[in-house]
Design a protein that fits this description.
two-stranded antiparallel ribbon, 12% strand, binds flavin-adenine dinucleotide, 223 residues
């Protein structure tokens, strides 16, 4: 009989978390500032086993609905994970309060993220053209751990303001929309590295990043 070497024991912190306290995470990130901020990606099975999620559902909206989450168990889960991963060296694991006066702990589903197909559209209302535009998370949901969420939110708001300006100056609706859509296609590519360092005056038009190789496919304002 061939002897196979035994696999090395998995003594990674994640494995200990799972075997010692039944918490199974894909990752955990700890930011130390005025408050201590923990972000973790928990596996569904461990949330079920720890009683955080009451009933398993395929539909994530139902799965994470208020009635299906035990808030006390969620707090205990977060506290245990935070305590374990910091070697129980934090003197207090009390939660900061949110603006509703409740413990600031929440659970989100990040298995899918949404992006609007178009940034803006024109509808006719009472025989007049009505310009509609989306900004922020409604336009492009961020993968928030990378910290680009609100920056892209501001860029979209500024780009929308530019479109409204051009609309008010009498630019043809299709031309204004085309310019806005061209900028929207670039939004997911914006990073701190490819943003312009020199901020141009606002009246020169949208001043955010254009990766150097990108060309606009419409008459969007020059940067
Ligand atoms: C846990 C977490 C951590 C994050 N960390 C970061 C980070 O470090 N850096 C970063 O850049 N981004 C981060 N983000 C993302 C960031 O919070 C969002 O990108 C940003 O808040 C989007 O702003 P918004 O104005 O589009 O939407 P929101 O901030 O969601 O604002 C929308 C507002 O509209 C209100 N509202 C909704 N429906 C209605 C209605 N029918 N009538 C009236 N009001 C309504 C809501 O109550 C809310 O106040 C994080 C997100 C989460 C969930």
């Amino acid at each position: 009989m061939n002897k196979q070497p035994a696999p090395p024991p998995d003594d990674s912190p994640h494995c200990c978390l799972r075997t010692l306290i039944g918490i199974d995470l894909e990752n955990i990130v700890y930011y130390k500032d005025d408050t201590h901020y923990f972000v973790m990606t928990a596996k569904k099975q461990s949330l079920l086993e720890k009683g955080v999620i009451l009933q398993d559902h395929a539909d994530t909206e139902l799965l994470l609905s208020r009635g299906n989450v035990d808030q006390n168990a969620l707090q205990a889960y977060a506290r245990e994970a935070a305590g374990f991963s910091t070697g129980h060296r934090l003197p207090s694991l009390d939660f900061a309060m949110n603006h509703y006066g409740q413990a600031d702990v929440a659970m989100f589903d990040f298995t899918c993220m949404y992006a609007s197909e178009t940034a803006a559209m024109v509808r006719r209302r009472h025989d007049r053209p009505l310009l509609l535009t989306l900004v922020g998370d409604s336009l492009l949901e961020p993968f928030w751990p990378i910290g680009t969420g609100i920056a892209r939110g501001f860029l979209a708001a500024l780009d929308s303001a530019w479109m409204i300006r051009s609309w008010a100056q009498g630019t043809a609706p299709l031309e204004a929309l085309a310019a806005r859509e061209s900028l929207y296609r670039l939004l997911p590519q914006t990073t701190p590295e490819n943003m312009h360092r020199k901020h141009q005056p606002v009246h020169r038009g949208p001043s955010h990043a254009l990766p150097p190789t990108t060309t606009l496919c419409s008459s969007a304002p020059r940067r």
